[in-house]
């Protein structure tokens, strides 16, 4: 069934409120799949790209998702200290990041390249941002562990209000995605 599901996702078929309980999917892409309020209980995903997937209100009980991929477009590596705040320019072309290393770095969103402070347009670009950056912080709470930023053209995925009861959610690099799901407003509930 994975092949047909992949085609339905590519055709942008609305898959909301569907029953996909115990579905096994491997080695495919479900990019931008709309699985709002779907029942994915006991599903098994292995080596599946879920970039941009919408799981709002989905049921995810006892799932085993391994080698999950979430595409990243650009990796912004430049700060030596923790990134404390980020802000997007009004036109959406430049990202400013402020760090505990007491630096503000500007990034071209499209290319992912750092705009050097020696560049003639640096001061003009910096003037677009309200300083201090923490007043317009897109990160929310302080992220003392973050010193590399990732920019993606897709929203990573949506999962607001999903009911998650146990399960494994591990990306292709071996990282547990439970924390990311919790940041999206989900709670992992333990069975009674």
UniProtKB/TrEMBL annotation:
WD repeats: 76-117
Record-linked InterPro entries: 5peptide_repeat, WD40_repeat_CS, WD40_rpt
Domain of life: Eukaryota
Keyword line: WD repeat
SMART domains the UniProt entry points to: WD40
UniProt protein name: Uncharacterized protein
Protein's organism: Paramecium sonneborni
